[in-house]
Amino acid sequence: MRNELTCIICPMGCGICVETENKEIISITGNTCKRGEEYARSEFINPVRVITTTVRTHSGKIIPVKTDKAVPKKCILECMKKINKIRPNNNSFKIGDVLLENILDTGVNVIVTAPCDI
Fold first, then answer.
1. Which of 36, 76, 105, 116 could hold 93 in an S-S bridge, CB 3.0 to 4.6 Å?
2. Backbone phi, then psi, for 11, in 5-degree steps?
3. pTM of the predicted model, to two decimals?
4. What digits encode the pLDDT tens for the residues 32-81?
5. In a 10 Å sphere around its CB, with 0-12 CB exposed, 13-18 middle and 19+ buried, how is residue 61 labelled?
6. Spatial separation of the C-alpha atoms in residues 109 and 101, rounded to whole Å
7. How far apart are CA 106 and CA 95, in angstroms?
8. Of 101, 99, 93, which Cα lies nearest the Cα of 111?
9. What ranges do the domains of the chain cover?
10. What residues contact 45, with CB distance under 8 A and at least 6 apart?
11. How far is residue 85's CA from residue 72's CA, in Å, rounded to a whole number?
12. How far apart are CA 83 and CA 106, in angstroms?
């Protein structure tokens, strides 16, 4: 099976082709650097994403947040359900404040990405 993807590791945006057979990688072509090959392998075996979104505070103000590390792509919907339930009621938030620890037992925290006073 032929899987095509665009590498997002550097600005070159290489078109990479991952040839597979029986869910095993046979070859990776199209990358111009080793990082592209590593990205393609990772994307095929266990794709992950950083989640960037917003959270509404108890008072109704919206604050930007993100996960501090990437989460498995298959967990994004469940992570968003948890994040959407957060209603912090602190008076102020600093960049890096943790709003939700260890989301879905992934070892990943949801953190504030901009200072905010309520």
1. 116
2. -65, -10
3. 0.81
4. 999 999 999 999 999 999 999 999 988 888 999 999 999 999 999 999 99
5. middle
6. 5
7. 21
8. 99
9. 2-45, 52-117
10. 25
11. 20
12. 14
Nearest to 106 by CA among 53, 69, 80: 69
Q: Residue 30: left if φ>0, alpha if ψ -120 to 50, beta else—which one?
A: left
Q: Which residue has the tokens 């505070």?
A: 57
Are the CB atoms for 114 and 72 separated by under 8 Å? no
CB distance 58 to 98 below 8 Å = no
Write a three-state SS string for the chain.
CEEEEECCCCCCCCEEEEEEECCEEEEEECCCCHHHHHHHHHHHHCCEECCEEEEECCCCCEEEEEECCCEEHHHHHHHHHHHHHCCCCCCEECCCCEEECCHHHCCCCEEECCCEEC
Query: Contact, 78 vs 104, CB < 8 A?
Result: yes
* CATH architecture observed for domain 52-117: Roll (3.10)
